[in-house]
Amino acid sequence: MLRPKWLLRVESSAALLLAAILYHQSQGSWLLFALLFLVPDLFMLGYLFSKRAGALLYNLAHTYTVPLLWLAAVWMNGPTSHRWLGLIWIAHIGWDRLIGYGLKYETSFKDTHLQRV
To answer: Angle at Cα 55 formed by Cα 54 and Cα 56, nearest 5°?
Structure first.
């Protein structure tokens, strides 16, 4: 039987790898990639206001929905740099999920949909 935790890690690895491949094929700057890779983690600053605000902001920045919609909006007509942002964002989420960080519950920063960190 395939365990859900293992499947989630495979899924995260695939998202990270695909985003990196597409980024490379679009001739993105790896320096820019490195500089922007951790930017979505700035959304955890919402926890300075409250657990609810922190979870909401963190989850908005760490769900695949937002960068996928971003990519869909800019893929055909947007500048290449805008596509790069979406790919870096997806790679970041894939990495976070791969190492065990998931979407947050309002109870605590450590309570995620994957595990308690």
So the answer is: 90
Inside any domain, residue 78: yes
Distance CA 27, CA 95 (A): 21
- Burial of 34 (C-beta count, 10 Å sphere; 0-12/13-18/19+): exposed
Q: How many domains does the chain have?
A: 1
Supply the pTM of this predicted model: 0.91
Sign of the alpha-carbon dihedral angle for 39, 44, 45, 46: positive
Please identify every stretch of the chain with a pLDDT value under 70, giving residue numbers as ranges. 1, 115-117
Burial class (CB in 10 A: 0-12, 13-18, 19+), 97: buried
Domain region containing 65 = 4-112
What pLDDT is recorded for position 36?
Answer: 97
